[in-house]
């Protein structure tokens, strides 16, 4: 079993990082001899895809290449080789993983651009990552659970679930969300501090479990 652990928060003192660490530490204690790879997408951002990357993608689509092991056939120019050399190690980490753990904040109702840049690098048309599972530990300033007024604008969990199912054919996806973080900062949300603490406590327990 291999665990790939990613973090995407711009903050070091971050709830999504704390939760992903609890999950990873627990997992590693239970699998001491197994593989573990860590990547900090905020501290060491992956580049945005460029034109040569799109050429690789178009080639894979036009030639109906769905086997990840054959993607390199798309490399025909020095610029494409450069693009390949950036994406290949990122993709190899994903392919080698059984569990992909992502610690991510909600930014602007969605995911940070650092995580989106990583998704753009590793995602090719009609690829399959079947057999793997994703675990997402997230933190949000507000509350987006079922029945809340903001539920319809949760483009973080909804987006990632749709993405993993639609692009990777993976539905084994677990979300652990710490909510109402802004209650610690925004005076108008001060009355929600207790609910925030409860949400974080619950998320810590879920991450350890
Ligand atoms: C740039 C930025 C955008 C944010 N946008 C939202 C948002 O749209 N909705 C929300 O509920 N919280 C938002 N927040 C609050 C964060 O989700 C919250 O601070 C969370 O704890 C960040 O995760 P972290 O603790 O792992 O850094 C935003 C915070 C930042 C810094």
Automatic annotation (TrEMBL):
Residues 1-195 form the Flavodoxin-like fold domain. Its cofactor is FMN. The keyword Phosphoprotein does not apply. Its EC number is 1.6.5.-, 1.7.1.17. It catalyses: 2 a quinone + NADH + H(+) = 2 a 1,4-benzosemiquinone + NAD(+); N,N-dimethyl-1,4-phenylenediamine + anthranilate + 2 NAD(+) = 2-(4-dimethylaminophenyl)diazenylbenzoate + 2 NADH + 2 H(+). Keywords: Flavoprotein, FMN, NAD, Oxidoreductase. The keyword NAD applies. It comes from the Bacteria. FMN binds at residues 9, 14-16, 106-109. Binds 1 FMN per subunit. Belongs to the azoreductase type 1 family. Quinone reductase that provides resistance to thiol-specific stress caused by electrophilic quinones. Also exhibits azoreductase activity. Catalyzes the reductive cleavage of the azo bond in aromatic azo compounds to the corresponding amines. Homodimer. This is FMN dependent NADH:quinone oxidoreductase. It comes from Nonomuraea mangrovi.
